[in-house]
Structures are given as structure tokens and as C-alpha cells.
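Something for you to look into today, if you have time. What I am after is a single protein written out in full by you. I want to see for myself how the chain folds. Could you add the entry underneath, on a fresh line?
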Amino acid sequence: MPLWGTASAPPAAEGDASRAPSGSGAGAKVIRSLLPTRRRLRLDPATKLYFPYEPGKQVRSAVRIKNISKSHVAFKFQTTAPKSCFMRPPGGILAPGESIIATVFKFVEHPENNEKPLEQKCKDKFKIVSLKVKGPMEYVPELFDEHKDKVAVEQILRVVFLDAERSSPQMDKLKRQLAEAEAALEARKKPPEDSGPRIVGEGLVIDEWKERRERYLARQQIEGVDSV
């Protein structure tokens, strides 16, 4: 299995940190140091990424990420399969209480050794890390390299395949989240509304400005006649 995108301790199984006795070794200390004492982010789904099972195709999953802390928080995705998976957005900064739905893309391989489709085990994992930042700022991945000692692992998500032909609560929820993510993406693409004069073509202004100038010139003519 390829390594995570950035240098860090290998992912621990869920619950290992709580079961490890105090002072049980360097590995337990590393795990405890990576896990934040208080979560900065809330994920939905919390521990899994659901994908429709469509072999030979690129499929999508979604996860809602919400900042539940009182500070601005930067987050970043990492994966063990960077060549076949990517995230949109791969990272960002959330204000307190702000949330975003991230879309995860994955290419599904054909089953091996005559495995039943939905029983195919996927070794790919995704990790979400967080970093507390001082306030609103532009997100750059280098933030996590510059403050490695303050980076916390929020959650490790494992892949779960769903039957694309069958309705289920997980599949219905995934479809809703994907639709919401697409709507938010389209809204960001729209140009912001401008209350000022709109430019039409190159060097031309809308009729409103033309009318203003015509009224101004007419007023100048009237004042000139009155003075004569």
C-alpha cells in the first residue's frame, strides 16, 4: 500500500488510541499525539466514504465537513491512492460554524479472483487533517508543512461500496449530498452581482449613462440660451 501524501505516522485502527494503556510504547504515544484532545471538525458520514460500485468507471462519494470549533480551521485530504483518487476541494479554511461538502472521486477496479462485486475489499483510505489558523486567509497546502507540530488527524475514512442499482439510506443520502455539492459549485462559478454600471462590449456603457450625458448636454444648452 502506498504511503500517505505527507509524512506522518501510519493510520491506526479506530479505537486503538483508547485501548492502548498509558506508557505502552512509542507507538501509542505517537497515536495519542496525533489525535486532537477536542475535535475541530465534524464529518458526515463520520468514518466511511460510500461509493457506488461501478467497475471500470470513475465514481463519486461525498462528505460534509463542519467546523465545530471557535476558531478558523484549515483542513486537508490525504489518501493512500493519490493516482486513482482525488478530492474537490483538496483542502480549505472554514470559519467557526461553516461547513462544506467535499466530493471524492475514485476509479473502481474490476474484481479479482472471481470475487462477488460488493465483497471486493478496497484497501484505499482517506485521512482528513486539521490545523487551527489565526483568522480568514487564503488556503495554501504549505500551511501544513510550516506547522507540522500543530497538525491533528481528525479522522481516517475507509471505503465502502454500495449497490448502484439498489436504493438504500446510504445511497439516497449520497445522492443528496452530491447534488448539494454540485449546486454549491455552480453558485461559486457565477460572477458576483455588481451594483455599478455594467460594461457592454469594449468601451461602451449601458443606456443609462448615455441618457445621463444627453440630459446633461441638453441642460447646458438651455443654460447657454438663457444667458444670451
Q: What stands out?
A: Residues 169-189 form the longest helix (21 residues). The first strand starts at residue 41 and ends at 44.
